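Tutorial handout. Part one gives the primary structure; part two gives the three-dimensional structure as tokens.
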Amino acid sequence: MDVAAEAARRFFVARHLLAPARSVGGGAQGVLEVVRRLAAGSQAAIAHTKLALNSWLRAAGPAFDASLALEFLDMTGPDVREGVAAIREKRPPNFS
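Part two.
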């Protein structure tokens, strides 16, 4: 396995970098360039960054889950029906 493929496997970045690389016109080559740069970089710094980001994600996970659940409730409740009716009837909404 070449360095770029090994780095993509180790860091799980290929999937996450593909869309941004394509959006700037890099395509798969853009992904490989980013992976090569990561592989040549400070492995300690990359590991520490991953630890910090993973720690943040673990801490933020419950808040995200709660936020998603509450938004789902808000988007399926009676206020949605009133909001849609108000727009269709061209009147201010009357949320209870």
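Part three, for discussion. The chain has a mean pLDDT of 79. The CA atoms of residues 66 and 87 lie 29 Å apart.
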